[in-house]
């Protein structure tokens, strides 16, 4: 297969895979009220559905390098698209909350595996264009996060809530078609992968590497704050006296900023000697945003939201660093699994801790103390995580 055609096909595959790794999550929450009128959604269901994404993303991070040890990244990507399509499609037509959760697990596990398998594919097929392809990967990932909550309710008004959910199953089904072609044609990678290293000694080496732990902590604490804001920002704003429509608009804004920055940060990270100044500036924005939301919410809510959005934009930067700081495709697979596995498990605790503190105390300072402390820790570890050279 000619190199140009092979590269173009892989680019299309990365685009459709990256876009479909988030809509099943962010396109659901605006529809929970509509679902509740037809299916009884208990408090336990709501707690579980909110915790499942980071939990399963974390588990996927640890199992995907093992899968990479036995199967090619192309085969795994096709399986990922099948899992997402089946899970999202079937859960949209069931009436049982338990079955809905089970099918969500299938879809989210596919998304989690997809999170980990894309970076080594980029490293294998575009070793000399890592920053550019990381921009494509991260940008489409953020786009797939931003669009679904904006269109979920309008789609539901036209096609009911089930139809709104099915849209993202159809989107993932297009990914099956693309990756089926890629899996059949099997274009040769430009950087050969020594698969035996991925699940064994390479992962063991990372466990003993301080910089790998630093990058995992930086990524995990970023997602820790991401999920807290995605879950609690509207509620915090309505508690401060703003109407729900404004709070919803601020949620869209806080997700839009990482989308925009996601198209810039990968190239910027490659050009800079170290990305730590970016992380330090973003940590400052996150801290000021939290302080403003806590102490002066009415003064400048849009400014606080913008600062919070900038603050959580270290996530696309962290994904880029996984690829940039890997010595090879197999090292990228292992590092991606280690960083995202541990990072997402850390992130899964965020909404639960924040909810417990808000509901257990009559004052807000314990909850804000936790997120500010997490920001300080992220700032501290970022110097090691962003240091130049391979991990």
TrEMBL record:
Transmembrane ranges?
A: 41-59, 71-93, 99-118, 130-153, 165-185, 212-233, 245-268, 275-296, 302-322, 334-359, 365-386
Q: This protein's superkingdom?
A: Bacteria
Regarding the membrane, this protein is recorded as: Multi-pass membrane protein
State the compartments where it is located.
Cell membrane
> Could you tell me which InterPro entries the record lists for this protein?
MFS, MFS_Cyanate_Porter, MFS_dom, MFS_trans_sf
Q: One GO CC annotation, please?
A: plasma membrane
Report the protein name in the record. Answer: MFS transporter
- Taxonomic source organism: Brevibacterium aurantiacum
